[in-house]
C-alpha cells in the first residue's frame, strides 16, 4: 500500500488477534517499507486494549537538519532492548535501513519533532496488557516528494502465562514455543499497492 504523500491523513493497516490468554511480554515489531525518503515518515502502533509506540518520527530531523535522512525505506525490527535509537541512525548512504533498533518514541507532532525531544512512547507501554483486539499501524508522509510503500509489518510477543488456546485472524503467521510461555509472531503483507487506506 502506498503511503499518501504530503498529508497527515496517512494510512492505517490492522491486524486482529483473538482467543489468547495471558498478557504481553517482550514485544518486538517488524516493519518493511520500500522507497520514499525516511525522514518524511511518521508512524505509530496502537493496541485496542491500550499501548502506543511511536516507531518513526521524521528520523534524522534535528535543528540542523530539518528534512531528516533521505534514505529510501526500512526493513527493520523495533525492540526497546536494541542498542541504538532509530531517530539517530546516522544515514545509510542512500540505501534502505535494516537491522534492529529502538523505536523513535518521540510523541511530538512530526512537523516540530527534534532529536532532543523526550522519548515517552516506547514498546514497553504494551507490557502486561491483553494482546487480543485490533492492532493498528499508522503511517504518514509529511513532505511532497518520493512515494513510500508499506510492504509488510508484524509483531512478536510472549503471552504469559502460557495460553491454552491460540487463534488468529491475520495474513501469515507463525507460532513457536518458548520456555514458560508462548511466543507469537504475526505478519501482514500488503497484497495491493493500489488499495485505498483504511480510515
What is shown here, in short?
The chain is mostly beta strands and 199 residues long. It has strands at residues 7-18, 23-35, 41-47, 52-57, 73-78, 97-101, 133-141, 148-160, 167-169, 173-178, 181-189.
| Contiguous uncertain segments of 5+ residues | 162-181, 192-199
Strand order of the largest sheet: 6-5-2-8-11-10
Run of helices and strands: EEEEEEEEEEE
- Report the β-strand fraction as a percent range: 35-45%
Q: What characteristics describe this protein?
A:
single chain, 199 residues, mainly beta, 6-stranded mixed sheet, 5-stranded antiparallel sheet, globular
Structure write-up:
There is one protein chain. The protein has strands at residues 7-18, 23-35, 41-47, 52-57, 73-78, 97-101, 133-141, 148-160, 167-169, 173-178, 181-189. Mean pLDDT is 86; it is low at 162-181 and 192-199. It has one domain. A hairpin with a 4-residue loop joins β3 and β4. A 6-stranded mixed beta sheet has the order 6-5-2-8-11-10, with no helix packed on it. Strands 4-3-7-1-9 form a 5-stranded antiparallel beta sheet, with no helix packed on it. The protein has 199 residues and is an all-beta fold.
